[in-house]
Each structure stands twice: as C-alpha cells, then as structure tokens.
Write a structure and sequence with these properties.
- The protein is an alpha+beta fold.
- It is built from 13 helices and 6 strands.
- It has 2 domains: 260 residues, no CATH class; 88 residues, no CATH class.
- The longest helix has 42 residues.
C-alpha cells in the first residue's frame, strides 16, 4: 500500500469510528427506553439496567454497521474531492481500483467484524440478557411486594411490608391469609426473607405472631421466633429460559430440532434469520462500492458534489431497507432467501464493474444536444448581427 493509499484509509477510518459510535449511542438510548420500565417496576438496581442495556449493543451494532461504513465512506470521499486530493491522485496516475483499494480494505475488516458479531457475539450476549431478564421477572419479592403498599398476589391473600432492603429483607411484615374461610390467619413479623429451596418458594418470618379468631370470636395468638410459609402455590412462575431466534447460534437456526420442526412458521423464521446473519455483512462491501462509484468516477465539479451525495445516500438507504424487507418476506417464503445474498452481491458486481470500466461516461447525449443547440443559436445571432452591421 502506497503512502497516498494509507492517507486515504486514515481519512475513512476515523469517520467510520465516529459514525459507528454516534449511531450505536443513539440506538442504545432508544433500546434503554424499552428496558427502563421493566427495571423500575421490579425495583432492580442501576447495575442490572446497565447490564441489560449493554448486552443489547451487539445486535444494534450489527444493524447499523453497514450504514455507518456507508456514511463514513461518503464523508471521506467528499472531503477528498472538495480538497482536490482525488484529482491529484488521478493526475499522478492512480487508477480507480488503486484509489478504491484502501476503502475496500476497511470495508472488508468491517465485514469480518460484522460476521463475528452475527455468528458469535450477538447470540452469546442475547442469551445472557435473556437470563438476566428472566431473573428480573421471577424476582419473587419484586413481584409480590411494594414497600408501604397492601398487595394481593393471589385471591384471599394480602401482603404488606413497610420497607424492603437491597438484600431483599422485608421489615414490619403483615400477611393476611383468608383462603380458608373457616380460619383466616394474620401473620405479623418484624422481618421476613423470601428464598427458593428445591423448587419451592418459602417466606421465612422472624420475631412475630400468628393471629386467628376462634369459634367463640376470641383472638388466638401464637408467638414465634421463626416461621416458614410456603408461597409456591401463590407465586407460580415459569422459570424456564426460552430462547428466541435472535438468541440462537447459526447451527441452531439452520438445523432446527425435531420439536421445532413441528412449527413450520417457526422454521421459516429461523432459516430466514440464519441467512440474514450471513448476508448482512456483505452490505459493508456493497455500500462502499456504491459510494466509490458515485464519488470516484466522473469529472471534477467546482460547484460541489451535493447532488451526487444526495443521490448516493438515497440509493444506499433504499437498498438497505429493501434488504430488511427481504429478510422479513423470507420468513413467509423460503425461496426469497436467495435474494438476501443476491441483492448485495449484485450491487457489488455492478458498482465494481462501473468503477473499473475504462469507458469514459459522459453526462448524457441530451447534454451534448443542448451544447450543439446553444452553439447554433449563438452562430445565428452572430450572423444576424453582422448582417445588420453591413446594412
């Protein structure tokens, strides 16, 4: 790689880092809005919120990576054009392929990183996030109690706790159990702790008493130091970690189990997701070649490249949206999976052929006709002026 090519690569590298960071931050903030309600409602710590939010980052980076590469290439190439550095490079004898080489190398590295995220990092982080969310949803104390509020987790059961510490220990606990209409029980304790043991949910109360009314309408009071209440029937929750398509590795998506084969719709969705993970990294190369085709080939324009950049940006974003639409459509029709590869590969071949073509592409025949017509009008004016002068 020549010194000039290294300079071109550096001009594209930092815009890529900045655009990827900016888009990832924006996507992360958007993702956090859907998580914060769950975390706050279940009284989880800021660490849990940060953990769940960060674990969603690999998928967000996977979605925005080709667009970040595309935006960085357009910015870098426009800057090189405006500063006349591409003109100097062409005048020095560099071919379009030599000029495109640094950008394509950077896009190739982005494609490899994108592929690693899709095949390994995203399913790993999503499995960890799914487990964390399951812990949040099955947090018995969070589901059963609100500090200072009377909660009814089940019919005939009312629970109150004045305070719940970060460790889960409850202070000044009151439980009214009227599931038995004959002998309703009232438990009062200074403290309590919920725990899971052998698949059962147990509430350990300390320093309290049990109150009940006898048949003679007298209060029967039993004091205790420690009392265990079985809450398994009250707080029945599904503790099984169920994986979604975004949580599975590639071999799990493309080779579903016998149980998953019973659902044809689920199989089509899994296979479409697997092909999307393999085809999406190709867009890093395709969109880079699209930017090169628009901004490397062609004549130098003193008035700027605003129109070219606008046309390039609209074309690139439309193509990427079509790619997302193909992934969604392939969930219903497996034959469309081939188009998930065909679109970026076809765009890459077309833009690469245009970029390497030796043919000189002029503006359009219509522009030539306008110039010829303008010359004829000018000649007619000169002839009329000369005739008037002679008379």
């Amino acid at each position: 790689m020549t010194l000039l090519q290294r300079y071109f690569r550096s001009q594209a590298f930092w815009p890529l880092v900045i655009s990827l960071s900016a888009l990832a931050t924006l996507a992360l903030l958007t993702q956090s809005l859907s998580t914060i309600d769950l975390i706050v409602e279940n009284r989880q710590s800021a660490f849990v919120f940060l953990k769940v939010t960060v674990l969603a980052l690999p998928q967000l980076v996977s979605i925005i990576m080709p667009l970040a590469v595309f935006m960085a290439m357009m910015f870098a190439l426009n800057r090189l054009n405006v500063d006349s550095e591409l003109v100097v490079a062409k005048a020095s004898g560099m071919s379009p392929s030599q000029i495109a080489s640094p950008a394509l190398r950077l896009a190739t590295m982005a494609m490899i990183a994108h592929l690693l995220i899709n095949l390994w990092l995203q399913p790993l982080s999503f499995r960890t996030m799914r487990a964390a969310l399951l812990d949040v949803r099955t947090d018995i104390a969070a589901q059963m109690l609100r500090p200072g509020e009377f909660i009814q987790p089940a019919t005939g059961v009312t629970v109150y706790a004045r305070e719940i510490k970060a460790s889960g220990e409850m202070q000044d606990v009151l439980i009214y159990d009227a599931r038995s209409a004959i002998e309703p029980l009232t438990h009062i304790a200074k403290s309590g702790q919920i725990s899971n043991f052998n698949g059962r949910t147990l509430l350990a109360l300390k320093d309290g008493n049990i109150q009940t009314l006898t048949e003679l309408d007298t209060l029967d009071l039993i004091e205790f130091e420690t009392h265990i209440i079985d809450l398994t029937d009250i707080m029945a929750m599904d503790p099984v970690l169920r994986l979604k398509t975004s949580d599975k590795y590639l071999h799990e998506l493309l080779n579903p189990t016998d149980r998953e084969r019973a659902n044809p719709k689920g199989i089509r969705k899994s296979i479409a997701e697997g092909h999307a993970r393999l085809s999406a990294p190709i867009y890093n190369i395709a969109l880079t070649l699209l930017a090169l085709a628009f901004l490397v080939r062609g004549e130098y324009q003193r008035t700027g490249y605003g129109r070219k950049i606008a046309a390039c940006a609209v074309t690139g974003f439309i193509i990427r949206l079509i790619g997302f639409a193909l992934t969604s459509a392939a969930e219903g029709e497996r034959a469309l999976n081939a188009l998930q590869y065909g679109l970026p590969i076809g765009l890459s071949l077309f833009c690469g052929a245009y970029l390497l073509s030796r043919r000189r592409w002029t503006r359009k025949p219509f522009a030539r006709r306008r110039k010829v017509a303008a010359r004829e009008i000018l000649a007619q004016k000169l002839v009329s002026q000369s005739g008037a002068a002679s008379t």
